[in-house]
User: Fold this.
Amino acid sequence: MTYVQSIANLEESKHYLAGGVASSLRAAMKPTPLFAEKGYGAKIVDIDGNEYIDYMLAYGPLILGHAHSSLNQVFAEASAKSVAYGIQHKGEIELARTLCNILPCAEKVALSGSGTEAVMLALRLSRAHTGKRKVVRFHGHYHGWADSIFTSFPSSDMKKTTQTLNDQEKVIPGTGGQSENSLDDIILVPWNDSDALEKVLLEEHMNIAAVISEPVMCNSGCIKPKKGYLEQMRKLTEELGIVMILDEVITGFRLGLGGAHGKYQLKPDLVTVGKALGGGVAISAVAGNNEIMKLIEEGVVSHLGTLNGNVLATAAAIATINELAHNNGEAYTRMNEMTDRLVNGINQLLEKHSISGVINREGPVFHMMFSEEAVVEDFEAFNKRDAAMYTLFAELMLKEGVLVRTNGLWYLSTVHYEAEVEATLSAIDKVFQQLK
Assistant:
């Protein structure tokens, strides 16, 4: 397998596009960042003609796979009228009504363009609602790259080093160029540690506007919450007058139509959703209770965005939700069955080749890592993984026709079937032999 055209295009791109890639994450791909020619179903084809089974899925949004017929149809119908008006249209009402009906916490929603934007709005609403400014967030969680929330992050996709659990005096920015004071309002604590959470909330609640958390620590090991942890978070925040935000940009619509908070039967004050919501089109939303969301209506919190709720994005979101909801959500049953098959197969191959590894999984998303740890249930254990070995694994998998993200996070779509899973397991078998 050769990458001649991708390498040549990268060099050309560098003359005009900073770094040669449109997102810094893409630069981490080995042996070179790929240039795509087309995608269809669960597969993607690069400009050298190489075909790959795609488990990166555009970093999560392509829950229906590439070029899904339902989305292609709505794209054509929407763009025939106009992709954006800059004034209101019926699609906004239909999507907002749908979100209020399927997201348990949603009494009102606000539409935006990206997960980062949704988080920014949720934090502003929280501060305006409480009159407080501090925000509790957790080691290993990712909430977008805005200055006020982007902390140093442990990923092979990013070059910044991580902050240790013991260093809580100064929160380290996630990138050069962030203001040194941008994270002064952040209190960073270990996740899944009930005692640490209770201690900081009881001591600092008079200053804390919000606690923001991924319901599953997807970006750092796909680690599930310990039993009762999110419930404790909900109880404490409610008692202490703190807004609880669940960042479901990844888990929203991937674990079910009601997201993780629906699956876990939680009712946070605010939820952010994105990625899978648009099936590949840029759209996100904040959902929450009337009391907080009315701050937008009253003009206390400005909610801006030229392309918020545009025709193409709302049409894509409605079509994606309809596909996922069809026939009582059979798409989720199929995705989970395929993920079961793939994860079980990888575990068997780890044992066959005597390679130490851990797979953490929740629904049709999982994190694979090479580690001597028997289990990975917290951020400290996750940081003991062999990230370099996994980066090599991802490079070797590419040569076998399987595209995976270099940080270990895998997504399945509604169009990953038995043939793709079996071909993937065959590729892993070959790669494990090479790793040994």
